[in-house]
Here is the input.
Amino acid sequence: MGLTREPSRTVAAPRVAESPAAIECRLHGDPIPVGDSFLVLGAVTHVAVDERAMDERGPVAAALRPIARLGRDEWGELGRIRSIRRVPYRDAAPEADLP
Here is the structure.
């Protein structure tokens, strides 16, 4: 495949050196049967992100170029990305003002 293996920090399996981000996990509980598949939950033990995919606020989605497995033989990529300022909870209207 032309990819380079790189040692992981907290798990035995190597990670892909060319990937801009890697999440290392350990199995959290037993796999949960769901239909004819299983739901597997992992406890994150380490996250590595290439500095070129970061800015002063953290990881930049467009630089990470993530893909998602949608099912069957279908995969998804990011489309248009919009930035919308998040209102901190402390700045939100008090509950008394809500209908």
Observations:
- The radius of gyration is 19 Å.
